[in-house]
């Protein structure tokens, strides 16, 4: 199985760098909408609470070259980040598990702005199969291989109960799916040619909850 984690090194960029690129993109997009033509690493760093050296290093992976002491052309920077993330290309995904989380992701329009279209949805519940959600008909999960073939999807967004995750993964294994965005807490066993990213909201919360007591202490000592 191919996994994405902090040990996984792409040739040119670390995972933390890749994770920071969307916030640069948002900032650059806003700057472009405000008519700004040039933006410096120092300004980007200030807005995002980062060090300018970090910003320069991160942006260098996209191949963009800034002008010393001037900055980056905003439109060129936008294109460079989009292209580096492959957000200028179209990707098709199927959501498997149309419960609370699957439904929320379906409605999250921002993914479409980054080239990701939900082309199908599937579930195992007889009450849900055949009904409509977000203009898509819920398919029977048993028909997943046919749905993948029909839609040309290359990604599965997995939002089933943990107890069902591996069963679904085994069905996906023999299809043309290239990536699974796995929201369950199950370490999936799949073929090496499928990239798996485990997504966990708890890790963001862990950072917050760990820091909370320290912030309280700071407040008390001021
Ligand atoms: N990663 C995160 O941060 C995060 C956050 C919330 C929930 N989750 C996980 O996401 C998953 C979904 O959570 P939820 O709250 O939406 O649950 P839910 O019970 O609301 O939805 C699960 C859906 O999966 C369907 N389902 C069950 N077995 C299936 C199968 N074999 N094939 C296809 N569909 C099947 C159910 O009918 C239901 O519609 C759970 O594994 C949960 O732990 C992860």
From TrEMBL:
Record-annotated CoA-binding domain positions: 86-187
Function, as annotated: Modulates transcription in response to changes in cellular NADH/NAD(+) redox state.
Subunit structure: Homodimer.
DNA-binding region coordinates: 23-62
Record family assignment: Belongs to the transcriptional regulatory Rex family.
Protein name: Redox-sensing transcriptional repressor Rex
Gene Ontology biological process: negative regulation of DNA-templated transcription; response to redox state
GO MF annotation list: DNA binding; DNA-binding transcription factor activity
Lineage: Bacteria, Pseudomonadati, Spirochaetota, Spirochaetia, Spirochaetales
Binding residues for NAD(+): 97-102
Main localisation: cytoplasm
Pfam family, one: Put_DNA-bind_N
UniProt KW keywords: Cytoplasm, DNA-binding, NAD, Repressor, Transcription, Transcription regulation
Keyword field contains Ribosomal protein: no
NCBIfam families, A to Z: PRK05472.2-3, PRK05472.2-4, PRK05472.2-5
Cellular component annotations (GO), alphabetically ordered: cytoplasm
InterPro entries: CoA-bd, NAD(P)-bd_dom_sf, Rex_DNA-bd_C_dom, Tscrpt_rep_Rex, WH-like_DNA-bd_sf, WH_DNA-bd_sf
Intracellular or extracellular location(s): Cytoplasm
């Amino acid at each position: 199985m191919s996994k994405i984690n902090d040990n996984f090194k792409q040739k040119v960029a670390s995972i933390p760098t890749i994770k920071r690129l969307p916030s640069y993109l948002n900032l650059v997009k806003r700057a472009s909408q405000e008519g700004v033509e040039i933006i410096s690493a120092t300004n980007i760093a200030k807005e995002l609470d980062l060090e300018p050296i970090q910003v320069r290093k991160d942006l260098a992976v996209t191949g963009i070259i800034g002008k010393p002491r001037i900055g980056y052309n905003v439109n060129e920077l936008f294109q460079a980040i989009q292209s580096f993330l492959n957000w200028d290309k179209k990707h098709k995904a199927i959501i498997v598990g149309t419960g609370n989380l699957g439904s929320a992701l379906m409605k999250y329009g921002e993914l479409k702005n980054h080239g990701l279209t939900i082309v199908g949805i599937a579930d195992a519940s007889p009450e849900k199969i055949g009904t409509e959600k977000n203009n898509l008909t819920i398919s029977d999960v048993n028909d997943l291989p046919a749905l993948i073939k029909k839609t040309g999807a290359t990604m599965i967004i997995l939002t089933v109960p943990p107890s069902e995750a591996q069963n679904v993964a085994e069905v996906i294994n023999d299809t043309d799916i290239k990536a699974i965005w796995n929201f369950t807490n199950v370490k999936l066993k799949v073929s090496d040619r499928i990239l798996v990213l485990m997504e966990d909201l708890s890790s963001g919360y862990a950072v917050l909850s760990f820091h909370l007591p320290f912030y309280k202490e700071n407040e008390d000592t001021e």
